[in-house]
Structures are given as structure tokens and as C-alpha cells.
Amino acid sequence: PPRPAGMGDVPEPCPQAPLAVLSKVELRVSCKHLLDRDTLNKSDPCVLLLMQSQGQWMEVDRSEVIKSNLNPVFAKIFTVDYYFEEVQKLRFEVYDSHGQAGVGTHDDDFLGGMECTVGQIVAQKRVTKPLFLKYGKFAGKSTITIISEEISGNNGYVELAFRAKKLDDKDLFSKSDPFLEIYRIDDDRSEQLVYRTEVVKNNLSPIWEPFKVSLNSLCSCEEKRKLRCVVWDYDSRGKHDFIGEFFTTFEEMQKAMGENKVQWECMNPKYKIKKRNYKNSGIVVLLDLKIHRVYSFLDYIMGGCQIHFTVAIDFTASNGDPRNSCSLHYINPYQPNEYLKALVAVGEICQDYDSDKKFSALGFGARIPPKYEVSHDFAINFNPDNDECEGIQGVVESYQSCLPKIQLYGPTNVAPIISKVARVAADEERTKEASQYFILLILTDGVVTDMADTREAIVRASYLPMSIIIVGVGNADFTDMQILDGDDGVLRSPKGEPVLRDIVQFVPFREFKNVSGAATRSC
Asked: What is the pLDDT of residue 155?
């Protein structure tokens, strides 16, 4: 794709580097003129979203089923990660659903499909395309419309609980079966369905289940944006009866926080004109509203949060004798070894967010002076009271002067250093200030000996303001590291407790060592 203006020089791509997520995108789906596959009623459509992965179509998500409707507007919002630098192929498939049997994938249930890319939808914001049956046949006049919206960084979500009282009765032999729809009114006056509640059967004073929606979806994060709320009487043939509507804003809804409640008259404009004594078609009450703010990493940085950077270096014997040119710790006067390259690549990025530019530098797996006992968390400047070095250069100098004084030994125990940084992070957590975030960079040449303790330490640390970057140096087997990364499944402690969030990123340095300096850092 063409390079956006203002992006400057894009670094050369990294080999096998995970792509940075540019943003998340919300997709809303509606269809028109669907084929009628049912003999007695209309089709009951459902949309499946598939993404192409390594040439295969994989189902990612599916919408709700809308009963007896050939022009459905689906309440389900699909969320996809958007990678600017990758062609992400999507396929939308519409099926006629059959009650408890679910969505059939037989040809006679297939109402049509459409393929496009995430980039096309993001660029056009609204895409309407015809639906095709098998072998490229048009599905009559059927079309599908996808509307995209990028989720802004400073996004949160809101939990809402509605009920209604004394709604109009639309049914002859029973009471109405009400459900509520909320629409956001956009700048172009078009309406976007935000949420559709469940149907409460035979009840003129329904209490709907509480639900959550993103602030982005509800009001585009603008508190004064107009919202239209509509109450319907459900009809199984798809011809829902209009009970009434009211208009509000998120700003007004927020009065329902705490013990307060907000209520609106549900109005039917036709009745208001025709009926002289018409008051309303019922009352809708917002019983409760809870806001859950979700702050981005950038929000914290711009709010003054400092990054505290700790580097931990593997000094186990498997690295080889530092005096031997084959050793991973060999100090070559003409070029830095892999440990130094990895340290500089990560450290140079982190130092911009650390105002004092002082980095803790620790070693593990060596016998250290004066008694030459094995230590798994020693300061490489040999000052146990202050393990900080002045900038990245200070860490490099401490590393070079420490090597001749220690004996490379073992085993490769990583848990003590993770626990050490976690203790400092826990002290910060208790202040409730969110003024410091801790990054631990572990540079190691391979297999971790204390795997069970390390998993336990990572699960504990996942509750704290810290992240761990593990860089694998050399050509060893890094299977253990991939397990700690958790990308192939959720990392769990030996007792089975999962991490609260994924805080470990593993990078095998051999895949990046031949990439130029700037690109190595971004990788």
C-alpha cells in the first residue's frame, strides 16, 4: 500500500517479526434483499466472518440469528486487528439458520458470500457488495453492507441496565413482548445500531439484562452525541410493532451513576398527533450505569509514567569461556557480541521514557567474588546497595569489567531475578500512583533450569505493572522460552493458575542479528 504522508522512512522489514497492530477495527454488518429459503416463513439469517490464514479460510466469529428477516441489521459487532502492512482477506458468509440445529453449511442454507480485505473496508469506511452463491452465481439482488470504525486509543466501555414500566400493549390475547434498540446518530445523520436487547415475553414492565458496549461504539467517545432508543413488540414473523422511542445522550445517561436513576417517556409520534389525551407509551428507566475506562500505554506515558528498565544477563557456563572467540561472551575489540547488540537494541528505545537514564543491571548463574559462591541475582557493578548504571553505556562498561572477575557456572535459574523486580513493582503498585512501569530484559543462551518456579513467578508478576522481554542469544533450543511467551496458549503456573495478562515477549536474536541497527530496535 502507498506510504501515508508523514510516516517518514519506514525501517526495512524484520524477518519473521510479529507485525505491530496499527489499531482495532469494529465492523457492522447488514444485508438487503436476501433469498427466501423458507417455505412458510422468511429466512432466519446469520453471518459468519472468516479470515484467510496460510491459504485456509478460518471462521473467526458469527453474528446472532435474526428471525424471519430478508433485510437484517445485525447487532453483533465484529472486532478485527488491522495491520497496515498486510493484505488481510475477509469472507462474509450468510446462512439461513434452523433453530436449535444452528447454522447449517449445506448449499440449500447458503444465502450468499462476499470477499474483501480489511484495508478496503477501512479505506472506504462503508462497503456494499453483491452476495454470490457457489460458482460465482449472483444471489438474486442480495447485497451485504459492511461499515468500519477504528477504535480510538483512549477507549473504555460502559455497562448499562435498563427496564421499562407501563408499556403499551400491542397484542390481542397476551401482553407485549418488548425489546430495546439503541442507535447512535452520526454526523451525516445516519443511524448505527449500537445494541439490541433480548426479548422479554408477555411483560409490559420488562427488566432487560445488563449489557456492556464500548464508548467508541455507543457515542464515538463524544458525550453529547445524540442517541435514539426504540422499544419494539417482538413478532416471530419479523414484523415487529413499534411501541415508542426517546432521544438521549451519554452525558444525560451518566446521571444514573450511584444511587440515581434516569428515566424517559417512551413516545409514539403518530399517537401524539392523533390522540388528544396521549401522554406516552410507557416509561424507560436506566437503573444503573458503570464506566470502565481502558487506558492505553500512550495515555500512561503522556501522563508522566516513567519506565524503569532492568537488564539481567546470563553468565552460565553454557555460554563458553569469555576468553575464547567462540564464546557468546567473547569481547571482540572490533564488534559487540550478541549480548551487547541485544542490550543496546532494546535499551536505546526504553531509555527515552526513563528520565534519570539509570538502569539496573543484574547477572545470574555465575560464581562471584569474594567467596565465589553461585548467585542468581547479583549487581554486575558489584554494588549490592545500588545496582544502577548510568545509561546504556554504563551497563556496557559494567558488563565488560565484570566478565574477568567472575566464573561462569550454573544452573540457569531465572525466577529469582523476576521475583526481585516484581517486589519493587509491588511496592509501586501499593502507591496507586501509576507513576512507574517496570521492564525486565532477560538475555539468555537457552534452557531454563527452574521452569516451574519461573512460571510461578511470571503468573505472580502478571498482576503487577511490569513486562518481561526475553532475548535468546546463540543457537540453542529455545522451546522453553516459547512456552513462557504464551503465544501458543495461556501460560499457567504449576498449579494451573493462568496469567492475568500476557507479560512475556520472547525474541530469538539469531533471526534479527543481520538486520540493520534501526530495524533491529523496532523488531
From this structure: 60
